[in-house]
Amino acid sequence: MLFTAEVIELSEPQRVASGTVRSVYTFPGQPELLIKVFHTPENRSPRKPLKRFAWKLFPTMKFRSMLNELNCEFLATLRLDKEIRHLPISRMMGIVQTNRGPGVVVERIAGPDGELALQIGRVLRDRKIDETLLSALNSFVKRMFDLHIVARDINGSNIVYGTRDGTMGCFLVDGYGERNLIPLRSMSARLNARSLEKQFAVFAQRAGLLWDPVQRSFSIPE
Ligand SMILES: Nc1ncnc2c1ncn2[C@@H]1O[C@H](COP(=O)(O)OP(=O)(O)OP(=O)(O)O)[C@@H](O)[C@H]1O
Ligand SMILES: [Mg+2]
């Protein structure tokens, strides 16, 4: 049987990465996929009293960020049509139930060595930025604008540098999807572009790159 109706057993050794809110596991028997699960249900209880109250009143609110993320990825996938390989986000394959809570199934982005791809922040820190890396970054930026991706947390740990289809590229793995009750950025490409520009400018500053807001591209300082 395909995994669709199973409760998937995850254990500690399968955990390959972890962020502030989610743990990332290899998908048992599906080496090309990962499962992301919120750390523990207890940790998920929001700290802000108002939010805690809202979650109690509307229990499905706790799935909101996951659903917004899926919505964002699905929309971009639909927009790309046959150009699917150019998706600047790791693909999202849906939701599964695991012994550690509901999880979202995503494409595993690997590095050239087959290991989990490195976070771009680390790559930019550890090695000299060459033309290949710069061009991967700039293609990523172009696709983010062209596809009207609503990203809200573009930083060195939410972008990974790895391969898809044998080609190295940059992929957003977290920090996307509309958050606002009135989805202004989803409705207006101009507003969205303004926000992306701001985020890429900050990213450039932290990475020691130059950001050109007219060309919407990074360059290496002389
Ligand atoms: N699809 C993927 N392919 C490869 N590595 C990934 C993928 N998704 C996540 N990772 C790795 O796992 C780390 C944590 O994942 P993620 O950012 O989704 O967790 P999070 O808890 O939501 O993050 P945050 O701390 O930013 O809230 C990433 O920084 C990245 O290194
Ligand atoms: Mg993250």
Q: What can you see in these coordinates?
A:
- By secondary structure, this protein is an alpha+beta fold.
- The protein has a single domain, classed as Transferase(Phosphotransferase), domain 1.
- Helix content is 32%, strand content 25%.
- The protein is built from 6 helices and 11 strands.
- The strands form 3 sheets. The chain has a 6-stranded mixed beta sheet, with helices on one face. A 3-stranded antiparallel beta sheet has the order 7-8-9. Strands 10-11 form a two-stranded antiparallel ribbon.
- Strand 8 and strand 9 form a beta hairpin.
- The longest helix has 19 residues.
- It starts with 6 loop residues before the first strand and ends with a strand.
- 26% of the residues are buried.
- The mean pLDDT is 94.
- The structure holds adenosine-5'-triphosphate and magnesium ion.
- Magnesium ion binds next to loops.
Key features of this structure:
binds magnesium ion; 32% helix; three-stranded antiparallel β-sheet; binds adenosine-5'-triphosphate; Transferase(Phosphotransferase), domain 1; 222 residues; six-stranded mixed β-sheet
